[in-house]
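Hi there,

I know you've been waiting on this one. I reran it after we fixed the sequence typo, so this is the corrected version. Both the input and the resulting structure follow.
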Amino acid sequence: MGEEGLFLDLEQAIFHLLSIFVHQFLRFWVFTNLNQTYKQDFEFPIKLINVPENVVITTDIPKSVHVSLRDKGFNLLNVARNMSGSPILINFNDYADNSGRGMVSSAELTKFVSQRLPQGMQIVAQRPQQIEFLLQLRRAKARTRRGERHV
């Protein structure tokens, strides 16, 4: 094996030592950067549930709420990793009134989003601020004597 084999072993040892050093440096760099405060935008899907069959929503309801969050990089990374595809469920019966309107206030919308975030995370901005929708009742179909449907 001689001097040539000893040289290859020394080269491999230096390579491994350098690899370990680079790996530790990158870990330190990532840790340092993720410990800083950042602002990041996220999108949470929305779904209106428990809409009675005799009700027609006549306005477009946003598909999602866009929020800007501010916190440490680690926390924002966890929010991004743990965002499930499950939407924010808005119960029709809680927000519709008898005048043909429904509204989810800014405070309620913020509460829905906050429930999905780690405690202490700051919501910087939210779009839309509130959700409003108009509705109409469908008329029941009446039957004639011969069983034909009449509107």
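Quick highlight: Strands lie at 37-49, 55-57, 64-72, 88-91, 101-104, 122-127, 131-137, 142-143, 149-150.

Best,
R. S.
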